[in-house]
């Protein structure tokens, strides 16, 4: 793993700043609470965590695309800096029209549901290029076929004329990726954007994104469950649990020396690309559901280190090193447990 | 060895060509695929995106009609079922398919409780029994029935939806379960939970399970055998660990080499399998091997598509490659990586 130092981007302009974000859904059920993070120009940040922990809602809040019953209750989301600065919480329709699809590109989970079923995928990309990119008809068509080629679709001209239901899951996902990068956004939000792709094409897409980061200083917010992908792609990692960020820091540090008990448990059950291990370990218990109120740590009911102090009062996020923090009251007392050491050995094998 | 529960023989499927018949190669989504699945077995399917994996699943549950070939389930030719016989077969729910895209396949207006009980109602399970079984199925996939029972699909996270789609499929206690990407949206812990659930179902109930997945490590954890697809063809099959560690088809080699992972020292590297930099891709015709244009080991014989044949020197492996026994040793001589544990060029 060759990862830049945690502060490699410290001097770069900020692309996105999320501060103390609170999102509720349904009947005022809190689903995301106190989420803060930053993305600098050219930087890639991985957002990982338990299913249902609030990753997608966080991304959708940044895009102003929360579900009907979803609401930002508190916090700020700011895109860009100085002249380019846009307050996304206050943004109205006209601002979003200039931002979404132009400055921020997004690829979502369930690709099928974000495309219009009655229009060929080629036309959907051409529309995007004409409206957002201001290209003429023929130019847009040529560029569209070029983009389809770039995302690794065989027979791009043939795919151009197909309707969404005629494409396989992975083909749809690549069409969405093409649309998302078509206007050279400064921020790409990729929510499980490569899960439907075979690993050969996934590697090609990740290489394409790496190139965009190098050449266009694209910033990447990558939501994924594949820790090996995070290890290969991201500078920093954010770990979510129960609507909160429980740990964050430089990828290599977090993966080799996890400090929060949830991160430790997650890494202990992960096989990270090991094909000889046939154990299927799980973290016992269930996560809290959205809206469930807990006075202390939300991981406590499943945590093997939990004490009275963990459940009686709110837990704050503690700085544990340059660019690293975790949200646990017992950080100082926890020594590296055997499970974490095991993972550490395997990760170091690549260095 | 018992007769297979599912036997697919020479299956080909073609979708109608789009208007003005452009593109899509020759229009065949599957070509001459033969595959067996036994009771109590877990078969993993991997392959290129668009190679026909979902099409195979859809054909098996009767959602698309094969152009040629037969599909027999428990001795009955389901490809030939029509009208009420087909409806009866579907209603009994012995074969269940978990769709790849749960948001599109789950009725958006039904609650989780309704979605999971629907297959029971169709199969004629008494109402009194339904509720218990629904809660049991939701619990088995790691979700809390009480908080989730009345939600609509769009009110669930991606991974929660994926697990509800699975709960809906196992609730009828089928004999064969076809899961199209059942764990792609799950964190590792929940992924392991679902995979061990499938493992338990096949051990305790003798369920046959087919899992389509892109994540090789999740298949390695649970599948007995694995089948590899490339452009509408089955190019390799065999015991999972052997196939993943000693691939016999160059495409399988490329797959294993490209998997994101904490690399093992002795693993193949993608560069060992890609065409050499700047090399002109081999040109083929309609009869050529499907992998020809990307294959580093293509030679004269490859202008004819190789049949899927038993791999020499093995008991239960097949491959469709003219160079299946020779390319691994070619890598050992052309690259610096240690490919020591590649299959010997057995004859
Ligand atoms: N429209 C909604 N109404 C009610 N609850 C919702 C709604 N949307 C999401 N939730 C709940 O909010 C929580 C966070 O959902 P989110 O989709 O952000 O999770 P996630 O971290 O992306 O999970 P996954 O990895 O499974 O996709 C989940 O518990 C989910 O059930
Ligand atoms: N309804 C349809 N009409 C026309 N062509 C289709 C239809 N469904 C699938 N195809 C085509 O058939 C081929 C195989 O698709 P299939 O969905 O079986 O692939 P897959 O292996 O499941 O891919 P993925 O891993 O991306 O899901 C693709 O080329 C696809 O474009
Ligand atoms: S048959 Fe020939 S072209 Fe096809 S994979 Fe084998 S060596 Fe390559
Ligand atoms: Mg999600
Ligand atoms: Mg598919």
Commentary on this structure:
The complex is a heterodimer of chains A (about 350) and B (about 350). Among the domains of chain A are: about 110-180, no CATH class; about 260-350, no CATH class. Chain A is built from 12 helices and 12 strands. Chain A has helices at about 55-60, 95-100, 120-130, 135-150, 155-160, 170-180, 200-215, 225-235, 250-255, 260-270, 310, 340-350, and strands spanning about 15-25, 30-40, 45-50, 70-80, 85, 105, 185-190, 220-225, 235-240, 245-250, 320, 325. In chain A, strand 7 (about 185-190), helix 7 and strand 8 (about 220-225) form a beta-alpha-beta unit. Chain B has about 350 residues and is an alpha/beta fold. Chain B has 2 domains: about 5-225, Rossmann fold, CATH 3.40.50; about 250-340, no CATH class. Chain B contains 13 helices and 12 strands. The model of chain B is unreliable at about 20-25 and about 335-345 (pLDDT under 50). At the A-B interface, helix 5, helix 6, helix 7, helix 8 and helix 10 of A face helix 3, helix 7, helix 8, helix 9 and helix 10 of B. The structure holds adenosine-5'-triphosphate (2 copies), iron/sulfur cluster and magnesium ion (2 copies). One magnesium ion binds next to helix 1 of chain B.
Distance between the termini of chain A: 5 Å
Structural class of chain A: alpha/beta
Give the number of domains of chain B: 2
The shape of chain A, in one word, is: globular
CATH arch. level architecture of the largest domain in chain B: 3-Layer(aba) Sandwich
Oligomer: heterodimer
How much helix is in the residues of chain B? 25-40%
Count of strand segments of chain A: 12
Succession of helices and strands of chain B: EEEHEEHEHHHHHEHEHEEHHHEEH
């Amino acid at each position: 793993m060759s990862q830049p130092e945690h502060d490699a981007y410290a001097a770069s302009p900020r692309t996105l700043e999320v501060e103390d974000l609170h999102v509720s859904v349904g009947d005022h059920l809190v689903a995301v609470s106190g989420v803060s993070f930053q993305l600098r120009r050219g930087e890639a940040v991985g957002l990982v965590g338990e299913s249902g922990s609030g990753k997608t809602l966080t991304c959708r809040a940044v895009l102003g695309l929360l579900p009907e019953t979803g609401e930002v209750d508190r916090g700020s989301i700011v895109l860009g800096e100085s002249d380019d600065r846009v307050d996304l919480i206050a943004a109205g329709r006209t601002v979003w029209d200039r931002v979404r699809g132009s400055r921020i590109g997004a690829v979502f989970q369930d690709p099928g549901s974000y495309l219009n079923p009655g229009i060929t995928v080629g036309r959907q990309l051409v529309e995007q290029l004409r409206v957002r990119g201001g290209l003429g008809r023929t130019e847009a068509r040529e560029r569209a076929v070029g983009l389809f080629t770039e995302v690794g679709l065989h027979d791009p001209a043939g795919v151009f004329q197909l309707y969404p239901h005629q494409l396989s899951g992975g083909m749809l996902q690549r069409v969405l990726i093409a649309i998302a990068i078509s206007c050279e956004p400064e921020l790409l939000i990729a929510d499980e954007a490569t899960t439907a792709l075979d690993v050969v094409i996934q590697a090609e897409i990740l290489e394409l994104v790496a190139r965009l980061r190098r050449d266009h200083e694209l910033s990447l917010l990558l939501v994924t469950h594949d820790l090996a992908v995070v290890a290969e792609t991201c500078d920093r990692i954010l770990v979510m649990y129960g609507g909160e960020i429980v740990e964050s820091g430089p990828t290599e540090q977090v993966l080799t020396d996890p400090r929060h008990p949830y991160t430790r448990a997650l890494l202990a059950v992960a096989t990270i690309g090991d094909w000889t291990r046939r154990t299927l370990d799980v973290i016992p218990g269930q996560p809290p559901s959205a809206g469930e109120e807990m006075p202390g740590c939300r991981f406590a009911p499943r945590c093997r280190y939990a004490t009275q102090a963990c459940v009686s009062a709110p837990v704050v996020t503690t700085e544990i090193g340059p660019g690293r923090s975790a949200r646990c009251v017992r950080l100082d007392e926890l020594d590296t447990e055997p499970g974490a050491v095991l993972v550490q050995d395997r990760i170091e094998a690549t260095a | 060895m018992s007769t297979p529960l599912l036997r697919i023989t020479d299956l080909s499927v073609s979708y109608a060509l789009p208007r003005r018949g452009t593109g899509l190669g020759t229009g065949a989504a599957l070509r001459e695929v033969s595959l067996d699945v036994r009771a109590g077995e877990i078969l993993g399917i991997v392959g290129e995106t668009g190679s026909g994996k979902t099409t195979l699943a859809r054909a098996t549950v009767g959602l698309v009609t094969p152009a040629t070939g037969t599909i027999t389930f428990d001795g009955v030719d389901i490809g030939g079922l029509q009208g009420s016989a087909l409806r009866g077969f579907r209603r009994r729910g012995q074969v269940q398919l978990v769709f790849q895209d749960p948001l599109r396949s789950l009725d958006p207006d039904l609650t989780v409780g309704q979605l999971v009980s629907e297959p029971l109602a169709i199969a004629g399970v008494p109402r009194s029994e339904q509720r218990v079984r629904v809660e049991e199925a939701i619990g088995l996939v790691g979700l809390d029935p009480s908080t989730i029972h009345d939600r609509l699909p769009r009110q669930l996270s991606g991974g929660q939806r994926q697990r509800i789609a699975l709960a809906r499929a196992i609730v009828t206690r089928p004999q064969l379960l076809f899961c199209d990407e059942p764990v792609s949206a799950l964190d590792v812990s929940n992924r392991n939970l679902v995979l061990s659930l499938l493992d338990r179902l096949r051990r305790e109930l003798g369920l046959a399970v087919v899992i389509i997945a892109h994540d090789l490590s999740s298949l390695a954890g649970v599948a007995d055998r694995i089948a590899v697809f490339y452009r509408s063809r089955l190019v390799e099959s065999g015991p999972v660990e052997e196939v993943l560690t000693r691939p016999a088809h160059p495409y399988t080699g490329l797959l294993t080499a490209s998997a994101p992972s904490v690399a093992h020292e002795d693993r193949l590297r993608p560069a060992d399998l890609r065409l050499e930099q700047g090399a002109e891709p081999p040109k083929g015709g309609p009869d050529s091997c499907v992998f020809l244009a990307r294959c580093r080991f293509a030679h004269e014989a490859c202008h004819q598509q190789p049949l899927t044949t038993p791999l020499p020197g093995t008991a239960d492996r097949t491959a469709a490659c003219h160079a299946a026994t020779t390319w691994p040793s070619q890598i050992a001589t052309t690259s610096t990586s240690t490919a020591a544990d590649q299959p010997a060029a057995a004859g």
